[in-house]
Design goal:
Number of strands: 13
Shape: elongated
Structural class: alpha/beta
Radius of gyration: 42 Å
Largest sheet: 6 strands, mixed
CATH class of one domain: Alpha Beta
Oligomer: single chain
Number of helices: 11
Helix content: 40-55%
Distance between the termini: 65 Å
Length: 440
């Protein structure tokens, strides 16, 4: 094949066109605005420490705070609002022999044959024991006359009366039950003794804030119905955890016609009332109330001398109806002594030996025990004081929640410290693992 020589004129034309194009591009570039330099994004891998910080702040810390907040909140609610009953008292066993106090009455040369408990609570209001078990406890403490004085109700009386008239336990033979209730308001608590269906007959006086005139009318009505009135636990009512700011004075109570003052409530002696009592020649008789809400030790007994006739003494062979009739006659004998204010009190500062019984936790308490435990721990930071109830609907005082911010601050400090310490430990642990056991 013959050699082909390139066409020189054509090459020269192409080169000329390329040079002209380059010249134009250079001119356009010089006239255009300057272009900012492009910053390249680094695609280098972040350090393990920065990844750990990111995970802690974005995931671990918020999740931990949420869990702790939830536990504390639910625990506090369980402790203060749910409040399941801890002990069912189903297995409680009382001493077979009633206790016999060894002290002497406060009145000199005072003889007695009756030990009276005028202030006793049951599950009919806020007590922990059933009406039957409340009587069993009272009997074990040595009392032979009892008054189930639940707050503004006598619902437990029929059950207690039925128990006493049908039981075959000889220790309850001739135990006398006095109809009673504790008149409970936001100004005063009073024991009303000796009136059947009293809460019905005295219903107009069951108001949260009775005036002095209301209380005077109440006492007059009780007297007309054959009953007596005793003022309860003045020290607790006036200086307790939630005191009644408008509690009547002792002189006002005397002017109202009140018959008795509870000189001893549990183990508190109302020494300020002594000048108004028969101990000092005053008009008020004296009571001693166990104020039993749950099984406990007893420290005082109200004593009386009551003469029963032979026809009023029951026997085990009597029918329930006969026992009830004889009890009604014994009730009137007791009330006759009470109306004359012929009572005294025996005080034992040591108290009775406490009986032992196996506690049977309720299912509800066992279920809630985890949350209650957390709530009790949280009470170092948050305290809840439940307002006083009137047992008539409205509360006498509001619930109060108090936050101890200093304790909260220290809790937060220790929490953050322990959290950081724990996270650092896991970080170091992961680094050691990578060093000795590197991933492939």
């Amino acid at each position: 094949m013959a050699n082909v020589t390139p066409a020189t004129p054509l090459l020269e034309h192409v080169n000329s066109m390329n040079m002209e194009l380059d010249s134009r591009l250079t001119s356009i570039t010089e006239d255009a605005a300057p272009v900012e330099p492009v910053h390249r994004i680094s695609l280098s891998r972040p350090s393990p420490f920065s990844l750990w910080i990111h995970r802690v702040l974005r995931i671990d810390l918020p999740l931990t705070v949420f869990i702790i907040t939830f536990l504390i909140t639910f625990g506090v609610l369980s402790l203060f609002l749910w409040q399941p009953t801890m002990n069912s008292y189903a297995s409680i066993v009382f001493p077979e022999q009633p206790y016999k106090p060894t002290g002497v009455p406060l009145h000199a040369n005072f003889s007695y044959n009756v030990l009276f408990d005028p202030h006793l609570h049951s599950t009919a209001s806020d007590g922990k024991l059933s009406p039957e078990d409340a009587l069993r406890w009272s009997r074990s403490m040595g009392f032979s006359v009892m008054a189930l004085s639940d707050h503004n109700t006598q619902k437990g009386y029929p059950r207690a009366l039925s128990f006493l008239t049908t039981t075959t336990d000889p220790s309850f033979l001739n135990v006398t039950l006095i109809p009673s209730f504790e008149y409970s308001t936001c100004r005063v608590h009073m024991t009303i003794l000796g009136i059947h269906n009293a809460t019905t007959q005295l219903a107009p006086f069951l108001v949260p804030y009775p005036t002095n005139d209301n209380l005077t009318s109440l006492v007059e009505t009780v007297h007309k119905l054959g009953g007596v009135v005793g003022i309860n636990h003045i020290p607790w009512s006036t200086s307790g955890p939630d005191p009644f700011s408008t509690h009547p004075t002792r002189r006002e109570l005397v002017e109202m016609g009140v018959d008795y003052v509870e000189l001893v409530n549990v183990r508190t002696v109302d020494t300020a009332s002594i000048p108004f009592t028969t101990l000092s020649g005053g008009p008020l008789g004296i009571l001693a109330g166990t104020d039993m809400h749950q099984p406990s030790v007893n420290y005082a007994w109200m004593v009386m001398q009551v003469e029963f006739e032979a026809g009023e003494v029951a026997s085990l062979s009597d029918s329930a109806e006969v026992k009830k009739q004889k009890m009604e006659r014994r009730q009137e004998r007791v009330m006759n002594v009470l109306r004359r204010r012929k009572t005294s009190v025996i005080v034992d500062t040591v108290g009775t030996p406490f009986f032992v019984f196996s506690e049977q936790l309720t299912t509800a308490y066992e279920f809630a025990s985890f949350w209650i435990g957390i709530g009790e721990w949280a009470t170092q930071m948050i305290t809840f004081r439940q307002g006083m109830t009137s047992f008539l609907g409205p509360r006498c005082s509001q619930d109060v929640i108090t936050v101890n911010w200093r304790i909260v601050g220290w809790y937060m400090f220790h929490f953050i410290f322990l959290f950081v310490l724990l996270q650092a430990f896991f970080f170091l642990l992961s680094r050691v693992k990578n060093i000795f056991f590197p991933s492939k």
